[in-house]
Every structure is written in C-alpha cells, then in structure tokens.
Design goal:
This protein is of the alpha/beta class and 553 residues long. The protein contains 22 helices and eleven strands. It folds into three domains: 10-75 and 306-431 and 466-498, Glucose-6-phosphate isomerase like protein, domain 1 (Rossmann fold), CATH 3.40.50.10490; 101-292, Glucose-6-phosphate isomerase like protein, domain 1 (Rossmann fold), CATH 3.40.50.10490; 506-546, no CATH class.
Length: 553
C-alpha cells in the first residue's frame, strides 16, 4: 500500500467545481444549436491516430469544456500517471505491483524493465504455435492436431475469442478453434462431439490456476480423453497451459515444457497480449498475433506522446468523466457495425466494469461521486430492430460508441448499407424529429388533420442524444490491436481522474468465496449442517427448497 499523503478528493478541486458550473450553462444547449453555431464542428471535434478516426462532435461539449477537462486532468496529474504506468511503477497499489500489459507488446523496447522477459515468452508462444500449425507437435496417436479447445473464463476467454472470431478468413483450414468458458457442462458438451480425442489439444488458460470453471472443464476434458482410451501418460500430450501458477499446472499433469508463464504484473482483463493469446497464435498464426500486438503498441505510443487535445484515449476517457460526473449518464452502448466484432461489447464489459466498478479511492476513502458505467451493446444493424427504440425515444439518455470501418470489410454493397445505417442512427439520435415535423409528414402521407394531431407526438423523436463514431481505416489485426488498446487507456484515464485502482477486482473474490461455502451446503444433508442457521433467511429458504425439506414460505 502506498504511504504517500492522501490527496484531496478530486471533487473538491477548483477544476471539478469549474466543470460543475460550466455544465449548468450547457443544460439548455442542444446539439443542433452547437452545430448551427459552428459549421466546422464536425471536423474540429475529431482526432485520429494512424488507423482510427474518432469523431466526438455529437456531444454536449465545447472548446471551453475541453479546456476545463484538461485542467481536471492536470489536477489529477494524468501525465505523471501515464508515465508511471509505462515505467513499471506499482500503479496497482492494493497488490503492490505494476500493470505492465504494455510491456507485452513493446517489442522489447519499453521502459518497464520486463520488456525482454515479455519478448522471450512471446517467442516461446509463437514457436509452439508454429509447431502445432506445422504438425510437428502431435497428439498421442501421432496425428496432427485438428481441434484447439481453449478452457478459460473472463480475461482468459473474452480477448482470444474476440480476436479469433474477428478474422475467420485467416484461420488455418486444418485447425478448428473452440472456446469453453462456462462451468455449465452443456458448454463443453456442445464442443466435444465436434472433436476427435486423438487430434484435440486443450489450452488451459488461467493465471491463478485456481479458477473453478476452468479447472472443472479441464478435469472433464481429461476424463473424456481417458474414456477414449488415451493413457494417463499420453494425456499430457493433449494439454498446454498459460498460467502464473506453474505448480498448479504440473499438478494437473501438464508437462513443464508446455507451461507458458503469465506474470503477476499482467491483469486478467489485460492478458490477451500475453501467453493467454496462444489460441490466437495457433489459429491465426504467430505473425498475425504480432500484428495485433503491433497495433496495440502503436496506440501505446500515441497515448504516451500525443498532446491531450489530439490524444484519442485521453479525449475518450475525459469525455466519459464528463458524461458520468457532469451529465449523469449511467451507461454506454458500444455498437460495432461490423459482424466480425460482435464480441467486442462482451470484451469491453469486463475491461470497463471490472476495472472501474470501485467505490473507494486508492487510499481506501469512500467515493462521493459516481464511477464507471454499465457497458452493453451488440452488432449493428441487428440492434436497430430491438433496443434502438429505447435509445431514440426512451426517457434515459445513453451515450453510444458507433464503430465501423472506412474500407469495406465485407461485400461492398453490404458495407455501404452498414455505413449508411451507422451514420443515420447517430444523426437521428442527434437531430431527432420535432412534433411539428412529424405532424407535417403525417399530413403529407395522407393522414387527416385529427389523425396527424393525435399521432404526431408518437412519431416525434427528441434527439439531442450524444454519440461517438470510431472509424477504423480497415478491419485488420493491427487495427484491432489499436482499438483494444484505445479502450484500455481510456479506462486508465478515468481511473486516474477518480483516483481508483483499475487493476484489482476484490469484489469478484467475495462471490467466489461464498460460492465455495454454498456448494458444500448444497451437497450436504440439511440435518448435517448447523450452518443453515447462520445464513440469511432467503438463502436458507432457497437451500431448504432445493433439499426438498419444506415448501417455500
């Protein structure tokens, strides 16, 4: 734990109070008014990195807003915090360690002191992946592997799954990849019938090697191999591990030479760039994995070196602070208009909500202001036919990140439809449709005056709802790496402003501990457990009902 003097709460700073006063002056200002007052607004409120164009003009902010947000960033010493992250300072103060996911993609050229170590592990991962792809490493019967099954959950699943599913055209035809996360046996049971035991390689991905879901599925996989006639000695040939707990992997029967380290300075939700990326390296190839790393490294450089006014993660992070603390927006929708990025909202849910779901400062003080947002979404245009109704006419305002590509990632005609729909949705959210406009349209379409008056309010759309548009130059592994690093750094910016630790997740541990206790109670006769009396009445009644000892009251 840090022994530095406790800094004053950020909400007591002059910069914060200035933003509060400024927010009040914009309460009655609409987006349509902001655009009418500045014909160049669309280009002025945008920024780009080498492969991402970020349009944030459809938001209730001005040049003064940005200046005040930059003052807030200076008050929170954001520049120093960025340097601390890359220099390997213990920014994860509750566990007294650095957060060096950036070192994993530094190409050995970073400043953290572990960059060479990270490069060494990457080399091992890539060499192993290439041997699997070439058929040099084989299963117990001497056949090349045809199916790769990643057993992991959370950060050991979401990142690799997203990346692998984003580029099906780059898959090695002879190898099929599968991902199993849930402890629900139906998850693994749905995959195994598509695999042959003698040509299946299981990747056990778990930093701690104590994750219940992953170890349960790993043991089920061992049983499956055993029942197929593979001997105990040969079962090890069908397993590899990415973990920070080598002894645990060895105890499961995994050969030491097939255990790739995940260091304690790599957080689970930041671990795609580590040995956890092995499924990516096998399925898409080591060179593609390196391209993803290279894109992230490029965004790292942008984040470190670009002035705040043109810095994509800084702008997005500060804008999110503006939304949460000064506009009272509770959630954010992430809507990729790219089918291959359909897993992105799931990935960002963990990245954002596990990192920023905190209610105490780094010094352990209660936080009097909101932190974090609920992240949700799905691929466009599917969402337009479900939840967009709430976004357009509901009573809550939800900021949106629209994500699409400038260059066609699919058939050209489909891409044009995606682009036009994406741009139309952001325009409709911003401009809306007035009651008068709706009334006139209804009359034009043949409605009577009385019908038009009755229906106009139902057809009106309030507008004045903010959104961003992120345009990737093209959907390539390199640009995906940049996009994911963009969101990582935006999260870090927010954590610095709020003075919270973005790299721990102690709340998650409580549910795990309680789950272990309740598992034992659930599997013990009620009469054998006096512990029932120590439970809350709801949990006790549910257990009793599950034990069929008495009906619920």
């Amino acid at each position: 734990m840090s022994t530095d003097p406790t800094p004053p709460q950020i909400d007591t700073s002059p910069a914060w109070k200035a933003l509060q006063r400024h927010a009040e002056t914009l309460q009655q200002t609409t987006l349509n008014q902001l655009f009418a007052a500045n014909p160049q607004r669309g280009s002025q409120f945008s920024a780009r990195s080498s492969n991402i164009y970020f349009d944030y003009s459809k938001d209730h902010l001005t040049e003064q807003t940005l200046a005040l947000l930059f003052d807030l960033a200076d008050t929170a010493n954001l520049t120093t915090a960025i340097n601390d992250l890359f220099d390997g300072k213990p920014v994860n103060n509750t566990e007294n360690r650095p957060a060096l996911h950036t070192a994993l993609r530094s190409g050995g050229q970073g400043k953290s002191g572990v960059d060479q170590e990270a490069s060494s592990v990457l080399k091992q991962v890539c060499e192993f992946a290439e041997q699997v792809r070439q058929g040099t490493i084989r299963g117990s019967t001497g056949k090349p592997f045809e199916n790769i099954v990643n057993l992991g959950i959370g950060g050991s699943d979401l990142g690799p799954r997203l990346a692998v599913e984003a580029f099906p055209e780059l898959h090695l035809p002879s190898i099929h990849s599968h991902f199993v996360a849930n402890i629900d046996s139906d998850d693994l049971s749905a995959v195994l019938p598509r695999c042959s035991p003698d040509t299946t390689l299981f990747i056990v991905s778990s930093k701690s090697f104590s994750t219940l879901e992953t170890l349960t599925n790993a043991n089920t996989a061992k049983t499956w191999l055993r029942e197929a006639g593979i001997t105990e000695q040969d079962i090890a040939r069908h397993f590899v591990a990415a973990t920070g707990h080598r002894a645990g992997a060895v105890a499961l029967g995994i050969s030491p030479e097939r255990i790739f380290p995940v260091e304690d300075w790599v957080g689970g939700r930041f671990s795609l760039w580590s040995a956890i990326g092995l499924p990516l390296a096998i399925t898409l190839g080591p060179e593609v994995f390196k391209q993803v790393l290279g894109g992230a490294q490029e965004m790292d450089k942008h984040f470190c070196e670009t002035p705040f006014a043109r810095n994509l993660p800084v702008l997005h992070g500060l804008q999110t602070i503006w939304h949460i603390n000064f506009r009272d927006y509770k959630s954010r929708a992430v809507l990729p208009y790219v089918h291959k990025l359909r897993r992105l909202p799931d990935y960002l849910q963990q990245l954002v909500m596990e990192s920023l779901g905190k209610s105490t400062t780094k010094e352990g003080l209660n936080i009097p202001y909101p932190t974090g947002q609920v992240i949700w979404g799905s691929e466009g245009t599917n969402g337009q036919h479900s939840f967009h109704q709430l976004l357009l006419q509901g009573t809550e305002t939800t900021p949106i990140d629209f994500i699409t590509t400038r260059t066609a990632h699919c058939e050209a005609s489909s891409h044009q439809q995606l682009l036009s729909n994406c741009l139309a949705q952001s325009k409709a959210l911003m401009q809306g449709k007035s009651i008068a406009q709706a009334h006139e349209e209804l009359l034009t379409k043949g409605a009577s005056e009385s019908q038009a008056q009755l229906l106009a309010r139902h057809h009106a759309v309030p507008g004045n709802r903010p959104s961003n548009t992120l345009l990737l130059d093209e959907l390539k592994p390199h640009s995906l790496g940049s996009l994911l690093a963009f969101y990582e750094h935006s999260v870090y910016v927010q954590s610095v402003i709020w003075n919270i630790n973005a790299f721990d997740q102690w709340g998650v541990e409580l549910g795990k501990e309680m789950g272990t206790e309740l598992f034992s109670l659930l599997n013990a006769p009620e009469s054998d457990s006096a512990r029932h009396n120590q439970l809350d009445s709801s949990t006790s009644a549910l257990l009793a009902y599950l034990h069929n000892s008495r009906p619920p009251r």
